[in-house]
Structures are given as C-alpha cells and as structure tokens.
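lol ok so funny story. i was supposed to be doing the assay writeup but got distracted and ended up predicting the structure for this chain instead. priorities right. anyway since i did it might as well share w the group, maybe its usefull for someone
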Amino acid sequence: MLRIGIVGAENSHTAAIAKTINVDELIPDAEVVCVWGETPEFARAAAEKGRIPSIVDSPKDLIGEVDAAVVDHRHPKDHLPAAEALLEAGIPLFIDKPFCYRSAEGNKFLDRAEALGVPVTSFSVLPKQAAFADLMREAGELGQISSVVTTGPCDIDSPYGSVFFYGIHQVDMLLRLTGYDVVDAGVYKGTQGNHVATIRFDSGVVAAMNLIKEGSPAFHISVIGEKGRLDRNIVYDDNTYLTGIQDFVDVFRTGSCPETRESILGPVAVLEALESSLVQD
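and the output, tada:
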C-alpha cells in the first residue's frame, strides 16, 4: 500500500485528491493517510471529505508516516519551504501548480532533488484532460505553429499570487503547444477585470492569453498552423483530477518523471515576467 500525505488543506484540491483515492478508490493500493492544514479547520474539513484518517501538527510530521507526499497550497510561495524537510528525508513529491513562486528558487530545489535522487514532479491538471490531449494530437497535424490564443479565468488582483493563481493553467497548456523559447511576456490591462497577456518566442511564434475575471470561466484554445487552425473548449474529464493523480502516483512508484525541468519551471518563468509587467505598469 502506497501511503500518501498531503501538506496544505485550504485548497480544494486536497479534498478532491483524497476523495478520488480514499473514497472512490480509483487508485489501486494507495491511500492518503494524513494531512496537515494551514488551520485546524481546513485540516478537519479536508480529512472529513476525503476520509483521511490522521491530521498532523506539522508538515515534518509526515516523515516516517508516508511513502510519498503532495504539497498543495493556494499561494506558490508556500510550496518549497514546506517541501524542504520532506525532500531531505527522501520522500517523493508532487508539488501542485505552480511549482514555486520564483524560478531561481525552483532550480535550486530541483538541483537538490537531483543530487538526492528524489523524484519530484509538478503540473497543472488542465493539460491532463482528454480534451487537451486530443488538441495536442490534432495540433501536431497542423505543421509549423505560428500563433496560439488561450482564454480562461484569472484574477490579477488575487491575494494568492496575482496572475500565478489560475494563470498557471493557461501558461502550462500554451507552452506545451509552443515550446519554451520565450523571449518576452507582458500583460496589457483592460477594464472590468479582464486583461490580455502577450508572449513572444524565439521561434517566431506569437501567443496571447485572455485573462478573464468577468465572463464565462471556460478554458478555450485557438491554434493557427501552416495547414489550418483549431478552436477548442478544454472541457474537464468526469473526474478532473484522476489523470493527474495517476501520473504523480506513477512517479511515486517508479521514480521516473515524464515532466522535465523545462515543463516544471518554464511556466513559472513566464508567470514571473507577467507579474513583473504588472508591477511596472
């Protein structure tokens, strides 16, 4: 039985992950056995919804109790500080999106993980949805991509990292389509809370992200290539979290991580650039 602990309970993902594993029993031979919450109330609520048997007083208390851990806060600045002791203890980690708040900090963490031989992974669950996987396959038939436009919910005034909070979903999907050779990125502020981010790539690809606060929350992607274009809503799977959980559990069990340093930290670097442009505005 793979024993999993979760650090962080304010985010709704914690209860959803635990419910998928403990209640719905969709991951064989695995159990979320303990949780730490930012407040006792958050911890109790997640434990109840996900049938998590134990609440611990500190993230460090997972050590010796679990075989792997999920680190899941609302603000990415909290991820790596909470994960450091677990990393040093050799515990495989899934760190929820975004991986960190600063890419330099993330590089140091991944350097240490590599030195210790500890598997660490991170991603948004949006690229794990079947609708996005279908889009990726179809985009591969368009030849050279010249433009990508994404749309989705994002509040640049969020207390949980501004554009980092929810912006990560669009950035992660976009970069998987375009590659990671970003030249520059910035946000142009609109009105009523809706804004546009632009991203340029060394390859010549241009991209835009519609950051929508007021309006439909659906994620949408348009891709233009030399042989045509695609326009798709990225609908959620019946269980939004299942494929992501399957992926990180596979990393926990095998020690092999399909995600790369580029795919983990590339989105963070873009979000940093977008945040910087907002500060300078």
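The radius of gyration is 19 Å. The chain has two domains: 2-122, 126-237+270-280.
back to the writeup now i swear
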